[in-house]
Amino acid sequence: MKPFSMRSILTTIAIMFFSFSLLANETEHKNAPSKDEKYNPVPPIMEHISDAHSWHFWGGGHDAVSMPLPVILWTDNGLVTFMSSEFHHDVEGHHIVSKKGMNFVNLHEKIYQLDTNEEHLSHDEKGKVTNVRPIDISITKNVFAMLLSMLILCLVFFKAAKSYKGGIKAPKGIASFMEPLVLFIKDDIALQNIGEKHHKRFLPFLLTAFFFIFFNNLLGLIPIPGFGGANVTGNIAFTLVLSTITLLLTNLNGNKQYWKHVFWMPGAPVPIKIFLIPIELIGLIAKPFALMIRLFANMTAGHIVVLSLVSLTFIFKSLIIGTAVSVPFTLFISVLELLVALLQAYVFTMLSALFIGSAVAEHH
Predict the structure, then answer these.
(1) Which residues face 94 on adjacent strands?
(2) Looking at the structure, do residues 114 and 167 belong to the same domain, yes or no?
(3) What is the mean pLDDT of the chain?
(4) 4 pLDDT higher than 80
(5) Which range marks the domain in which residue 220 is found?
(6) Euclidean distance between CA atoms 304 and 309, whole angstroms
């Protein structure tokens, strides 16, 4: 790989400062308090780390710029589809859309169905909404971001594959960056943790998991309009699916020795075996659960810290705080998040390989 030039470093810093200014401008426009009002950073932070039915770029109210996404609902009357931009009729703070004789409300990115001839959401004595929620299978911001990352991954790997046409040769271009990562996952993760006999079976999953997590982590750190900004890996549903795949691969490929150590540990006294069985069974779920929580918590925490630092300018209502504290610390944490993005992808892949390796290890 070519060394980073001063021009590339300055360009990167400029892009990051541009990203921070976008966050600050958006936060100021939408949530800037009046002189007597105390600024509350929680709403913009929660909006950023949460999923949404549209991709908001900048601005607020009538000046907001966003990309509508398809809303797909399954109701008692069948499938209902429309674009999220149709949520524009404001009735008591709720946006109502009428389709197939049914009315739908988007409240805090949760879509409810109104009863016949009902114009308002119903609440119980505790203030909880009692209206029915249809099955929501919409293309949300996180789903769109995953599709975007898949497209980028395909373009990157197809481009890298072209470098090897005509036989094995020294990689160049994007291949010179991808090849060391692929070899590292193959030799230092898959081979070391799973073994020579079985590692090739699980290498496609390990490569997919690593690069899918890594690219989504990077996209989540680039809040540039139209490119990135979605908190995909900070969504617990995303990490749940990945950890469930690891759970299934581990236990479905477990050999006789693996299950013997779970239900009847060799060499242990019978009372100890009976005592350890429920602990081992809990461990089968606890391992992938730890994978899920680790990735979710680390990526979400990074987004919250960055946005909290940006919010200091508005909390203290001082440009000095913004210049001397917010920008330097935000830049530092963002650079640190680049390392975390790679580290979390590595940790998830390495632990997945370790769990799979323990299930397929031969008896010695």
Answers:
(1) 91
(2) no
(3) 81
(4) no
(5) 142-360
(6) 9
- For the beta carbon of residue 278, count every other beta carbon within 10 angstroms: 9
Residues 328, 168 contacting (CB under 8 angstroms): no
* Structural tokens at position 71: 């809303």
> Is 345 in the same domain as 277?
yes
- Mark whether 134 and 150 lie in a shared domain: no
What strand order describes the sheet that includes 78-83? 78-83, 70-75, 135-136
What are the phi and psi torsion angles at 198 (to 5°)? -115, -10
| Residue 56 pLDDT class (50, 70, 90 cuts) | confident
Nearest partner of 55 among 244, 228, 283, 250, judged by Cα: 228
Cross-strand partners of 67? 55
Structure confidence by residue, pLDDT tens digits, 112-165 = 988 777 777 888 888 888 888 999 999 999 999 999 999 999 999 999 888 888
Check whether residue 249 and residue 268 sit in a common domain. Answer: yes
Give, as one character, the DSSP assignment of residue 226. Answer: T
Q: What is the pLDDT of residues 65-107, one digit of tens each?
A: 778 899 999 998 889 999 988 886 444 446 788 888 888 888 8
Q: Is 128 in the same domain as 231? A: no
Total structural domains in the chain? 2
| Among candidate residues 236, 212, 340, the one with its CA nearest the CA of residue 296 | 236
